[in-house]
Specification:
The chain is an all-alpha fold. It has helices at 2-15, 37-61, 74-91, 106-148, 158-173, 177-191, 201-212, and strands spanning 22-23, 28-29. Strand 1 (22-23) and strand 2 form a beta hairpin. It is elongated, with a radius of gyration of 21 Å. The chain starts with a helix and ends with a helix.
């Protein structure tokens, strides 16, 4: 995975950071002097990629296995689409310079790290959206299983299944871009991460349109 080169390089850079103190719960920084900003960017990349990889692992755990007569039910279609979308995020091309973070001038390194932060942030955003959709679909599947209680599917279950379908649609509609951005911003802020170069929503959505459309 091209990102692994970036992770290895940025971890090495971050080891030389000039942060005064860190708290054990989340690597919270107290201060950064100006000469350490690229190290802060490098560490931010590691943090974002770690989130992204964790989300991808959790999505991979949700493997739909419906009975043949349920294959085309709405929730199972959502789960299959989530797995396909997660694969597409991984398959989206990485810029060639991602395989090597420059050790040249500070300004050149800055621009390169900023590009990587945008790419990593957009992939993390998309993975979070996929993950939330997958969770909703799994919840839908679990609800159906509770309704069936091991019985064969029949018309007696129709009303309860319709309610489960309606709940799924409501939960999917609640997964908005603003919600995802706010969730990340709140979690990252609480953890004390350096967020100065995190891209705005418009930049993230433009990356998704240009790489995953």
């Amino acid at each position: 995975m091209p990102y692994q080169h970036v992770v290895n390089k940025t971890k090495f850079m971050a080891d030389g950071r000039k942060y005064n103190t860190w708290q054990s719960s989340g690597w919270q920084k107290k201060s950064i002097n100006d000469s350490s900003v690229n190290e802060a960017r490098a560490l931010r990349i590691v943090e974002i990629i770690s989130d992204f990889q964790g989300l991808q692992r959790r999505i991979a755990e949700y493997a739909p296995n419906p009975a043949p007569e349920e294959y085309f039910e709405e929730g199972y279609q959502v789960l299959r689409q989530c797995r396909a979308d997660a694969a597409a995020v991984l398959a989206a091309p990485f810029p060639l310079d991602f395989s090597h973070v420059s050790s040249g001038s500070g300004e050149q390194e800055k621009r390169q790290l900023q590009r990587i932060i945008i790419d990593a942030s957009a992939r993390r955003f998309q993975a979070k959206r996929i993950y939330l959709r997958a969770v909703a679909a799994v919840r839908w599947s679990n609800t159906r299983n509770l309704i069936l209680q091991g019985e064969q599917l029949n018309q007696d279950h129709a009303a309860q299944f319709q309610q489960a379908d309606n709940t799924l649609r409501t939960e999917l509609a609640a997964i908005t871009d603003a919600r995802i951005i706010n969730d990340f911003r709140n979690a990252d802020t609480e953890a004390g991460f350096w967020l100065q170069d995190d891209p705005p929503r418009a930049t993230i959505l433009e990356w998704i349109r240009s790489h995953l459309a």
